[in-house]
Automatic annotation (TrEMBL):
The keyword Repeat is annotated on this UniProt entry: no
Name this protein carries in UniProt: Transcriptional regulator
GO molecular function, one term: transcription cis-regulatory region binding
Pfam families cross-referenced by the UniProt entry: Response_reg, Trans_reg_C
Species of origin: Paenibacillus riograndensis
CDD domains recorded: REC_OmpR (cd17574), trans_reg_C (cd00383)
């Protein structure tokens, strides 16, 4: 999941490149429009997301955004020092997916990147029925049954259960769960809230919530659904 970063301020660029790579995003760095256009022309398919500074020494991020959107439907985030509504609206009208105004916190930028990428992901729940022990999830109807009886779940409980259902047997860390459940709809779920929702799911689905077998705690690592 490679990112193209185009930023002419080399200090900012190197810091961003390091932070992105530390967070698991391989990065290609360019400092001007010309070099970015060459990279995009040579192999645009290698990129999952592009980040463009608006003001570049030989042009603007607008040019690059237009080029990308004409060739592929991949997300674009603008980096700008211009906190100006007209420029922001212009970028969004051209197809940009988000913008962030400098100076910004790296953690905020990483959060925005992950949120934008999720919008472009194909629906992960392509299987119409998922079974976790004696619990069945019907993804087409959005219903959950235990031993044939329908179980009432809130939207967020259902979403959390779907995440477990699509990763049966896989250990999921708390951070992985938080990233997937905090989506573009603006549902804010912190670490404490996640604990509460897992507890609620167990109370509704487990035969013995005190000794869960459907959603197991893997000490020091996270949680695992099923075997």
């Amino acid at each position: 999941m490679k990112i193209l970063l185009v930023e002419d301020d080399k200090t900012i660029a190197s810091g961003l490149e390091y932070s992105l790579q530390q967070d698991g995003f391989p990065t290609v760095l360019c400092h001007d429009v010309a070099s970015a256009k060459k990279v995009l022309t040579d192999d645009i398919d290698q990129f999952a997301l592009c980040m463009f500074d608006l003001q570049l020494p030989d042009g603007s991020g607008y040019e690059l955004c237009k080029m990308v959107k004409e060739r592929r439907d991949i997300p674009v985030i603008f980096l700008t020092v211009i906190d100006d509504e007209v420029n922001v609206v212009m970028g969004l009208d051209m197809g940009a997916d988000d913008y962030i105004t400098k100076p910004f916190r790296v953690r905020e930028l990483l959060s925005r990147i992950k949120t934008v990428l999720r919008r472009y992901q194909k629906p992960p729940y392509t299987i119409s029925v998922i079974d976790i022990g004696n619990v069945r999830i019907n993804t087409l109807e959005g219903k959950v049954h235990k031993n044939g009886a329908e179980i009432s779940l809130t939207a967020l409980e259902y979403r959390l259960l779907l995440i477990f259902g699509s990763h049966i047997g896989q250990v999921l860390t708390r951070n992985q769960l938080l990233e997937q459940i905090w989506d573009v709809a603006g549902d804010f779920v912190n670490d404490n809230t996640l604990t509460v929702y897992i507890k609620r799911l167990r109370e509704k689905l487990e035969d013995d919530p005190g000794h869960p077998v459907l959603i197991k705690t893997i000490r020091g690592l996270g949680y695992k659904a099923g075997d």
